Protein: Branched-chain amino acid ABC transporter permease
Amino acid sequence: MSTFVLLTLTGLGLAALYFLVASGLSLVFGLADVLNFAHGLFLSVGAYATWWAAGHVPGAGPTGFGFVLAAACGVVAGALVAAVVELVLIRPLYSRTIEQVLVTVGLSLAGVALLQATWGADPRPFPRPEWTRNVTGILGAQIPNASLLLILAAAAVLALLLLFLRFTRVGLVIRAGVENREMVTALGIDVRKAFTLVFAIGGAAAALAGALGGVYFGSVSPGQGGSLLIFAFIVVVIGGMGSVVGSAYAAVAVGLLQQFVNYYGTAGLGDICVVALLAIVLLVRPQGIAGRAVTA
Structure:
């Protein structure tokens, strides 16, 4: 019983990390129709900004409110970088898919190279609070506090995103734009005004994933965002493009599948099973769990 509880909660912690990255990615693709391969860079920026702020910003640090302040600096940095990327690089390339892919892939590679040139390629110890190194007993299982922190953060982000999308005017425009951008434009609403905000929200969520991922892994490295981005894309496709709730469902499925299969099977088998799940979903329900079917 304790093993089942441990695998379930640690799997949900991994799922929470995937969701934080995938939620913004899903919104950006659903509204702006941009396949942003530079999204992992926003995660790395958030992680390194948090790491840097913990040692240089007055009041920030690895303990108590200091870590909250450092993580807030990382989130702001990720949101700003995402907004600048949309304004400078993406906005001139809307409806030009190939150019978007080339630019975002190039930006991702350049960003990783810049981080390596600035702070080196080796992982650096992350300044995490002492209590996140400890465990909490739940139903006989010793659960890492870092996993519990990720679960709470992802639940809070999901709730805030749903409230924003359903009960604010900008959120309603974003939802309508995801469903039918042409119709919203025909009604005289300039959907592109919401694009920058959506990029900023996605960048902030990814940056938060970077900060909490540093706590989860205990270190930060330039390539961390790219490795998590692969699973984030899988989550987005399984959940359905443009669906935040679908991304949450898919993240839970992917996280739990990875954790249980890797424990009871051989190392790396969980990743293979995740890819197999992606293939099954694409064959059976190409629009994803919560996506809408495309009709001719």
Remarks:
- The domain at 2-284 is CATH 1.10.3470 (ABC transporter involved in vitamin B12 uptake, BtuC).
- The two ends are 50 Å apart (CA to CA).
